[in-house]
Amino acid sequence: MKANIIIDVMGGDNPAAELVRGAVAGSRGCGAALALVGDKTEIRRALDGFKANIIDAPEAVLMTDDAMSVIRAKSGSSMATGCRMLAAGDGDIFISCGNTGALYTAASHYVRCYKGLRRAALSAIVPLSQPFVMADAGANPEADALSLLRFAKLGEIYCQAVLGVEKPRVALINNGTEPQKGTKIYREAYGLLTASDMNFVGNCEGRDLPLGVCDVAVCDGFTGNVVIKLIEGMGRFMTDGLKSVIGANTKTKLGGLLVRGELKKFMKGLDDTAYGGAPLLGISKPVVKIHGNASEKTVRSAVIQANGFAERKINEKMAEGIASLTVTGV
Amino acid sequence: MKANIIIDVMGGDNPAAELVRGAVAGSRGCGAALALVGDKTEIRRALDGFKANIIDAPEAVLMTDDAMSVIRAKSGSSMATGCRMLAAGDGDIFISCGNTGALYTAASHYVRCYKGLRRAALSAIVPLSQPFVMADAGANPEADALSLLRFAKLGEIYCQAVLGVEKPRVALINNGTEPQKGTKIYREAYGLLTASDMNFVGNCEGRDLPLGVCDVAVCDGFTGNVVIKLIEGMGRFMTDGLKSVIGANTKTKLGGLLVRGELKKFMKGLDDTAYGGAPLLGISKPVVKIHGNASEKTVRSAVIQANGFAERKINEKMAEGIASLTVTGV
Q1: DSSP class of residue B261?
Q2: In Å, how far is A256's CA from the nearest CA of chain B?
Q3: Any idea which fold B1-117+282-312 has?
Q4: Staple partner for B224: which of A51, A156, A244, B137, CB 3.0–4.6 Å?
Q5: Class of A121-274 per CATH?
């Protein structure tokens, strides 16, 4: 069964037309059906004859809008409309590159969390030495210890379902490896994680994070956002730096030609667009956040990934995992 | 005038002998006098005839010790002894690679903050596109908005004194660029920084941090520790990755030889040991923290850097800056 993917084409840094073209490319790549939410004139023009469901909701939630606006003044926006469609069953998955806080609010309000959960966590798969799941990667700037425990569980289930790791190594991002490190909340979370049924491997410092020491990295959304964007920024810094190194003179240019193939393979691991979207874990139906500056290529990847989610019944697996965790009282 | 440098040679990941050898190498490089605090037998053996003041205080504050132990059960430790020596004027600067929390406690207790300040910030100079100062890089896992404002001021003064930037661009690390991003504390700090006399350039996301967008990056010590160690970890990840790329086959090995010179220059920017120590800004006399896993090379750099601090009267410049800030009520 091919998925029916709802896409908010407004509210990103790039024009709707670019997102529509990316969605079309994704649909061509995987066969998923598209429901495009936004300015109908722009969508129609960009579709250029490609067949898709068009839902006219030209109002965009802006990056500068308050997160609550999406359920108040802008409840008619493309983002709110898309979330309501998902809740009503008019699609299998919702993708948006809009304001993260607003998307989190809209998803929590219109689609709702799984029973027993109060907060969703933005996940992200970080493709370094070995891919790992980050939770929360940016939805909750503040999180208490119990929320951190839940984020760990959500990350564990997602990691099992998507990366196929049977017993994921769960680590808490912290400013030191010792149990007493960090804030009061992190010390509490350390205790809760130690007492849980998860494969908790302890605190993980920033320096070890890129080296494949865990399959799930847990933290609040403030830290998670900084971490994930810093990894991206360091990747860009390195890419730019290597370009300068190779472009320095005739000798280095020749050297660059000789290492190019291997270098490309390695650098691909640092290319965030390859991984597409980041689901809001804990929301009862799949809502996927993609970069605010999502390009055509990013949207294409996200659509193909979303279709895979539906085909592999990731959401059903998440639901089963969550049901078992409410039983154990987490 | 050459500095008299007090060094705690205990409590790091490496044996005292390695730190002593690094100190000797540093002293040979810059002419500074050394006062080595730790196990006198080990120090004497490692000195191997080199002339230095030896202070016997064999008890080490361990990484697993509570931060308060340094002023209670372990007030006779090498770290506490060194701090007291600095306070008493028996040296110009104190260097330790021990437990950061304990060093912060010992410095605050024995040496004390400048008048008008309550909390010191660990600084770090991050050597990427263009070096910038991080404050707090790890001393205060939690910090209120007023503390963040003070860290910004301390970072500004330090940046002026050490990097020679006349009007440093001060940024707040945050999970988005908009003023309303982050936690309540970060939103408050944004307001305080906007109203200050500093050259505040707004919130800085992780992705822009490596790209030279600010001269001073401000955050709490939890975030700062994660950021600085992640930058280090990404550097290591890239170095390892490039080694594999170049070592892959005969062709890439040849390519590696051709780019080697330029590549080395670029990668040197990612080498944390080149920059030595991180002063605790706000402490009335210079206390410098170096890596727990400090090697001989790191200690050597730190000693040479510390000597430069004394020669360039950085501490006097800091004192002047702080005096002016208490006047303006920050």
Answers
A1: H
A2: 6
A3: Isopropylmalate Dehydrogenase (3.40.718)
A4: B137
A5: alpha beta
Q: When comparing pLDDT for A52 and A328, which is higher?
A: A52
- Across the interface, whether the CB atoms of A222 and B182 are under 8 A apart is answered yes
Query: How far does the CA of residue B222 sit from the closest CA of chain A (Å)?
Result: 6
Which residue from A178, A207, A221 is facing B233, i.e. has the nearest CB? A207
φ, ψ of residue A218 in degrees (nearest 5): -110, 135
What value of ipTM does the predicted structure carry?
0.91
What would the mean pLDDT of A62-77 be, rounded to a whole number?
94
Contacts by B263-266 with C-beta closer than 8 Å and gap 24+? B263/A245, B265/A245, B266/A241, B266/A242, B266/A244, B266/A245
Instruction: Note the pLDDT tens digit of each residue in B272-288.
Output: 555 568 899 999 999 99
Dihedral pair phi/psi, residue A271, rounded to 5°:
-90, 105
| Residue extents of the structural domains in chain B | 1-117+282-312, 122-275
| Distance in Å, alpha carbon of A131 to nearest chain B alpha carbon | 13
Nearest to A252 among B184, B246, B259 (CB): B259
CATH superfamily of B122-275: Isopropylmalate Dehydrogenase (3.40.718.10)
Span B112-141, average pLDDT? 91
Identify any residues that bridge with A278 across adjacent strands, giving them in sequence order: A289
- Does residue B328 carry a pLDDT above 80? no
Which residue in B has a C-alpha nearest to residue A292's C-alpha?
B176
Using the beta-carbon criterion (under 8 Å), do B209 and A230 form an inter-chain contact? yes
CA distance A177 to A170: 14
Mean pLDDT of the B162-166 span: 92
Average the pLDDT over B185-207 and give the result. 96
